[in-house]
Design goal:
The complex is a heterodimer. Chain A is mainly alpha-helical. Chain A is about 60% helix and about 0% strand. Chain B is about 40% helix and about 20% strand. The chains are: A mainly alpha, B alpha/beta.
């Protein structure tokens, strides 16, 4: 039973990485896995290459591992993939002028909306009711008297 | 001034509608990715040729604008594209080179025997490594490389008569003239 549970656990964490792809060094393999979960598979565009069984995902996983074995840092290995496929391959888009709208747009909208709501609420509270003029008061009393 | 404030949502809506209309314009496929390699030097490659004689590499292509087409015998869209490639080679005499992507040599050869060979040379990229270096994410893909070995344009998916006449040929003319 224990062995079966362990098997399930391993199966759940294995992603799409094939045994032949795995690096002998567990530390390097762990880094490769971490990098892979951040890279988009370009064939099935909503999966990371770690989860995807597409051929291309396999190729990119192997490329990342090659770079790591060659002594690249995590960022350098990621950059090797980005240089071929562009920023789109990153599941977490980088913060740069072209993506400012994406990163800060929602927050800006929220702040503007909150500020607008605050101003509106303030104005509503401070609006002083205008007192009736003498003529209006007379009319009102007349109406009330007629009713009664 | 107050009236202008009421027009603000209308203006916002129109602006958004314009953006959406632009993204939904006919002929635009959001799944087609821009190449990261545009205006960069083509990656180094040196492949054995399909005929077995000589090699096809970046250096052998330099000195003239060339078109490099990644294809495979197992790829259905490549067969759709094939007549266009034949026409481009025979009528327009473009410098067309092929790279057989993840394909067995005998299968690529059979394909070219059966449907005709539009290529001036075919490199064999058995493991897809050259494709990976080019940023290929699915065949067919077609790259235009200028005289200096820089990638100027990528076509994802099969070339059509329209993309060939309206984009590929004018670009080659421009590159050849300069």
């Amino acid at each position: 039973m224990k062995a079966f549970l362990l098997f399930l656990l391993l199966a759940a964490t294995a992603g799409a990485v094939e045994p032949a792809e795995r690096l002998a060094d567990p530390a390097l393999e762990a880094r490769a896995r971490a990098i892979s979960t951040e890279l988009r598979c370009l064939v099935c565009q909503n999966e990371s290459i770690d989860e995807s069984h597409a051929d291309l995902a396999h190729d990119i996983r192997v490329l990342v591992r090659e770079r790591l074995v060659a002594g690249d840092s995590d960022t350098a290995a990621t950059a090797a993939v980005v240089s071929r496929y562009g920023d789109f391959v990153l599941l977490r888009p980088p913060v740069k002028p072209a993506t400012w709208l994406l990163w800060f747009g929602p927050v800006t909208l929220l702040v503007v909306g909150l500020a607008g709501t605050l101003v509106w609420l303030r104005r509503r509270q401070t609006a002083v009711p205008v007192p009736l003029t003498d003529a209006e008061r007379e009319d009102l009393e007349k109406l009330l008297r007629e009713d009664g | 001034m107050r009236r202008l404030m009421f027009l603000l949502p209308v203006g916002l809506f129109l602006a958004l509608a314009r953006i959406f209309a632009f993204s939904l314009r006919p002929g635009h496929d959001p799944h087609v990715l821009p190449s990261a390699m545009i205006d960069r030097e083509a990656p180094v490659f040196d492949l054995p040729t399909l005929t077995g004689t000589g090699r096809l590499g970046r250096e052998t292509l330099k000195g003239q604008p060339v078109v490099v087409n990644f294809f495979a015998s197992w790829c259905v869209p490549c067969r759709i594209e094939h007549p266009i490639l034949m026409r481009l080679a025979q009528r327009d005499h473009i410098q067309l080179y092929g790279i057989a992507y993840k394909d067995k040599v005998e299968d690529s050869a059979k394909l070219l025997n059966q449907f005709g060979d539009p290529y001036r040379g075919v490199g064999v990229d058995r493991d897809g490594r050259t494709g990976l270096d080019f940023g290929v994410y699915g065949v067919p893909e077609t790259y235009v490389i200028d005289t200096n070995g820089r990638i100027r344009k990528r076509f994802v998916g099969p070339l059509t008569a329209e993309t060939a006449d309206k984009e590929l040929l004018p670009l080659l003319r421009k590159l050849g003239g300069s």
